[in-house]
Design goal:
Leucine-rich repeat, LRR (right-handed beta-alpha superhelix); 469 residues; Monooxygenase; single chain; 15-stranded mixed sheet; 2 domains; 29% helix; alpha/beta
Length: 469
């Protein structure tokens, strides 16, 4: 007997699950009757449907061996507009039989398709999306579908428009099983829910990606989870917005504050014209982030008015571990001139252990994008020195963007982060550069993309001259 077959099934199972090559799993399934159910369970665990042909093949395979319906745990439906994708209309009927489905990702074929006459087709909404929403409606029934679904990602559009209204996916919002929800390009408009649904959702992670947000809609949406832990509020900044500019920030913050008892990670980004100037000095009962006791990570874009709360100690989150300052620019050249004082002002009012500086995604990953000016590099070093006095570490992360904008759908390359500066590596490197200068003199150096930004900063801080400047 082959040694693998002599092991108990509870030991064989994780071995089979560790195989990630579909061809290997298929071969294993054909080896013997004992291994076939284990191999098939791993083979059918993740299914990706890109066109109508793959949907037809899925139908034939599942119906040939009905137990395979129970093997599917993750399903991605990302049809391409140029493919024969209409056959995917059979998928909702198949999903009804997938009793162990945990993760579902659904994309419209037209969401980022810009050919004239083919954008935001209404029949995608009327003929397809309605069937998926019916699945969520029926999930509360006895023996209904989606009873084990915990994660849903939905990239869509409205009928003839880039955005769809949030209340059109109302059954999704009332799911009793979802813990992770990622939606994009939605008008988070005002809608109503019965009082019986308030605070009942098990949702722990909510991602609003390139969404038009209103305070009324966000307030209702955030009244549903009983304990949200991760909120990514990424307001529209890359597409035309239907929401008015210069909105008051107070009602938005009040909506977020409904989850102050549980929120651990908050991210907020918005467009430059999104909000009016805001600091609630005239609100005597305003507590800011001071009651967000669980908040450990705060990511705020440079355009977010929420950052204005951080220099005020009575508004600061009490247990913050990491502050991420995002959306930082490299142009104009004077952008970083006051950055040390801005960061100092934040750290004076808010205690945290780690400072992360994130630049806005750009089409180049060149080291020279951030390090093309010695004065800018020295401003970064100044920030790191100031933070060191408070026992705060500092990192700088650059993002490369590949000609696409959010929301990022199937096949699109997401911005790639590269850490260019780490304060913990900078201090010993600076001492090394000073020692080298004392031993060999001040030899100029050239800026190379492959060179670590921490190294370049250390050379400049030690007083060495760069030939590229």
């Amino acid at each position: 007997m082959f040694p693998l077959l002599s092991l108990p099934l509870d030991l064989v199972h994780p071995i089979v699950e560790s195989i990630d090559n579909p061809d290997d799993l298929l071969s294993l399934a054909q080896t013997c009757t004992k291994l076939q159910p284990l191999a098939e369970a791993a083979l059918w665990k993740q299914v990706h449907i890109r066109n109508g042909e793959s949907a037809d093949r899925l139908l034939a395979s599942l119906e040939a061996r009905p137990h395979r319906f129970g093997c599917v745990q993750e399903l991605e439906i990302t049809p391409h507009p140029r493919s024969t994708w209409h056959e995917i209309s059979i998928l909702p009927s198949l999903i009804r039989k997938m009793g162990n489905l945990r993760v579902l990702q659904l994309e419209s074929p037209f969401i980022n398709y810009f050919n004239r006459g083919e954008r935001y087709k209404q029949y995608w909404i009327d003929q397809y999306i309605s069937e998926y929403l019916r699945l969520f409606e029926d999930s509360s029934l006895e023996d209904g579908p989606l009873t084990n679904l915990t994660s849903f990602t939905f990239h869509s559009h409205g009928a003839g428009t880039r955005y769809y209204k949030l209340d059109t996916i109302y059954p999704v919002l009332l799911s009793s099983t979802l813990t992770h929800l990622h939606i994009s390009c939605s008008d988070v408009n005002k809608f109503e829910v019965p009082d019986a649904n308030l605070g009942k959702s098990p949702l722990r992670t909510l991602v609003l990606d390139e969404c038009n947000v209103t305070s009324e809609g966000l307030s209702t949406l955030l009244s549903l989870p009983r304990g949200l832990e991760y909120l990514y509020l990424q307001e529209t900044s890359h597409h035309g917005s239907s929401i008015q500019s210069n909105m008051p920030m107070g009602p938005i913050f009040a909506a977020i504050s409904q989850q102050k008892h549980s929120l651990q990670h908050l991210q907020h980004s918005c467009s430059k014209r999104g909000y009016s100037d805001w600091l609630p000095n005239d609100e005597p009962d305003f507590t800011g982030f001071s009651l967000f006791y669980s908040l450990k990570t705060l990511e705020l874009d440079d355009k977010s008015p929420l950052k204005k709360l951080l220099p005020v100690p009575q508004y600061a989150p009490p247990n913050l571990d990491t502050f991420c300052f995002t959306g930082l620019e490299c142009r104009p050249d004077t952008y970083w001139d006051d950055m040390p004082s801005r960061v100092n002002s934040i750290s004076n009012g808010t205690n945290f252990k780690h400072l992360e500086l994130h630049t806005s995604p750009a089409s180049t990953n060149s080291l020279s994008r951030m390090f093309s000016l010695p004065s800018r590099v020295l401003k970064l070093v100044e920030i790191a020195r100031n933070m060191k006095e408070r026992n705060i570490t500092t990192t700088l992360t650059n993002y490369t963007r590949y000609s696409v904008i959010p929301p990022y759908v199937y096949g699109e390359r997401r911005p790639v982060p590269v850490v260019y500066f780490e304060s913990e590596k900078f201090w010993p490197e600076e001492e090394t550069q000073i020692a080298l200068m004392e031993a060999f003199g001040n030899k100029p150096f050239e800026l190379e993309d492959k060179e670590c930004g921490t190294m370049v900063a250390a050379k400049l801080a030690a007083g060495r001259h760069c030939l590229d400047y």
